[in-house]
């Protein structure tokens, strides 16, 4: 299926932050409850080892997705880095709650950090989860080039199967039930989340749209290869590939680090 870059609500600067945060809360619980990014942990550990990094910088962290789970996956393979959460629209209240739950392993940056131009002083291996497909090829290449020219390692992980079946079954059929049944259990508790789910259902409707469009935007491994070829630098190595999580769902990845 060819890559289609249609409109997503959460990319729009005018989109209300309260709805964006509700959508990110859903994504965070989904990623965390399904252990989506578990197979990324060994790849992150080995890249940190080759690059001599001790700190992870999550770009486009949104609602902090699977960061708590990632801390525990890495712990279980004897890797104990500190995480720093960043975003162009930082979700401070969620980051504070994640920091409290993490025993000092997670911290965050309160000012906007643009993944296409990360300030030099933010050092560490960069990570992106469930966000690379938001960027058109030119911007995606700028993210890769920014890491490579600043000699920082990077791991990009985007999960999902690019098919009509995923849109019909995984998004349009399953997600409305998930919203209906699970929303009261999402943390931190917010009245706004209940209001914009059950009274005026903007959070579920925008998530269904963005979720379907995200599937169409996924980069295949071939497309990721093409992007890395176009930003190849002498001192920097790229690797792309695909792993499967315990549910058989695919995670496409790009790893880059100074040689
Ligand atoms: C789908 S969400 C990411 C979800 C998150 N990584 C997770 O696992 O829950 C995409 C995020 O990218 C952020 N974003 C969009 N453009 C950005 C940019 N140029 N630099 C940094 N963050 C950006 C948005 O604010 C949004 O939070």
Keywords:
single chain, about 260 residues, alpha/beta, Rossmann fold, 2 domains, seven-stranded mixed sheet, 7 strands, globular, binds S-adenosylmethionine
Describe this structure in words.
The protein is α/β, with parallel strands linked by helices and 259 residues long. The protein has two domains: 30-162 and 218-258, Rossmann fold (3-Layer(aba) Sandwich), CATH 3.40.50.150; 164-213, no CATH class. The protein is 45% helix and 15% strand. It has nine helices and seven strands; from the N terminus they run ααβαβαββαβααααββ. It has helices at residues 17-33, 40-51, 67-76, 92-101, 137-149, 164-182, 191-199, 202-217, 221-230; strands at residues 55-58, 82-85, 106-108, 125-129, 154-159, 236-244, 250-258. Strands 3-2-1-4-5-7-6 form a seven-stranded mixed beta sheet, with helices on both faces. Strand 1 (55-58), helix 3 (67-76) and strand 2 form a beta-alpha-beta unit. Helix 6 packs antiparallel against helix 8. The longest helix is centred in the last third of the chain and has 19 residues, at 164-182. It is globular, with a radius of gyration of 17 Å. The two termini are 34 Å apart. The mean pLDDT is 93. Bound molecules: S-adenosylmethionine. S-adenosylmethionine binds at residues 10, 24, 27-28, 31, 59-63, 65, 87-89, 114-116, 129-131, 134.
